[in-house]
User: Fold this.
Amino acid sequence: MGCSTSSGPSVKMATPIQRLSRLASRTFSRLNTGEGLSNDMLLQLKSRFNEITADDVCFDARHIQERDRLTHEKAPVSYIHMWEDDCFSMGIFVVKRGGQLPLHDHPGMFGLLKVIYGTLKIVSFSEVSGVDVPEEISQLFPRRQRPLLKPVKLQQDGLITSYDMCCQLTPSEGNFHEISSESDMAAFVDILAPPYNHSRDRDCNYYKLVPTDDKEPNRHIEWLVRVSQPTEFWCDTVDYQGPDLEIENN
Assistant:
């Protein structure tokens, strides 16, 4: 794959991923100023994101495969950092066969995800408000764990490839999701706004689905319980090879 990473000063010469990152910065900077998201700008961002390909970010699965062959312990997921500031983060997750990003949340965050290689399975949930914990659920947990329970409804459960449009999550819709590879390798570009930040209570929390009785009257309601990060999940990092994403402050 021929992939130039040079970036000139002219806006006309900007690459697709550079134009996307600049639009993401303009779109999500509104969150920091208290203006709120512009639906028109978000639609434009999603439309541009839908056009992003593996070539645009210089992603070559063969490089990952060769790297993994030379590694003693292959990580189930690799992360390629592209950009992060107070406004948003952008990176590429590479999920190997049998690997997954366990069920997790994005507190108060917006997110966009675009598959650029392989096939992913995504299962996502939205939190439901005003639901009391049923006795049959609460009795499964000691009292100290009950505050960690969350009622949710299924938002998405399906396969997506590079031919599909980007997926979106918001603070209230699809904010909990699990992502796994359904091919030898799958990769997606991930945009989060604002980024995870421990000092601002935006930690990544992990969850498990609580098994429920099929005879439960409200079967559209599922229950998640917060857990520690699963021991089988860990990431290594790979250097980004694509065009430079220097973004001017807005």
